[in-house]
């Protein structure tokens, strides 16, 4: 398989940062109007207080399943590389220069461990951010905070339509602050999800699904942050829309979430 290729860098995403102070903070990328039509979306409101979730018995985390189509999926195998994200001098935020690049989150070996039939991976539509508050106000993030991974494999339903994995992160803070924000967002989305019972699932291991993407907490003893992983596209052997979304969650978002969590 050819090396992962980075194809296109598009624009600068404005980043809304609630209570953003210091060198880094929790951020939320805003995609441009020209973003791909198959980007992960939800029919429910997108704000944390209204995002799809449900007040119902928590299902068990889905197990990885073999594709009913042409190719099976595998078990995630992290490559052992870890991020070294440094706290800023204030002890609450982090140095953005130490953040990872969204286009380099997954290695070729990690992708093929999840999708063994992978023949090509293109990283595309990457975006940096722009700090709106704090001492970095007006500055770009040093690296990309969101990218799409286009994965060509036998798991896709159509030869000319690769599966797409959207990867985005909301910055990094001290462990306690990052954990509080993730837990608060998860609780509010679960409560709001009573209106959307088919668009909430607790995936276990600090991750949950909102119907359009998975939110994943990543952290260590000193710092933490939240990643969004959203898989899209037609999957082989599946014609039902909701069943396809669930398979994209179980067979792409869940295993890749485990890899992300191994990085910090």
| N to C succession of SSEs | EEEHEEEHEEEEH
Structural class: alpha+beta
**What's the Cα radius of gyration?**
18 Å
Number of strands: 10
Enumerate how many helices there are, as a single number.
Answer: 3
**CA-based shape:** globular
Q: Whole-number average pLDDT?
A: 79
Strand content: 15-25%
> What is the helix content?
10-25%
Poorly predicted sequence stretches spanning 5 or more consecutive residues = 8-26, 28-69
For the terminal residues, how far apart are their CA atoms? Answer: 27 Å
What profile does the largest beta sheet have? 10 strands, mixed
Summarize the helices and strands and which ones pair or pack.
Elements: E1 5-6, E2 9-16, E3 28-29, H1 108-114, E4 120-130, E5 146-152, E6 163-174, H2 175-192, E7 201-202, E8 207-209, E9 214-219, E10 223-232, H3 241-261
Parallel strand pairs: 1-4, 2-4
Antiparallel strand pairs: 2-3, 4-5, 5-6, 6-10, 7-8, 8-9, 9-10
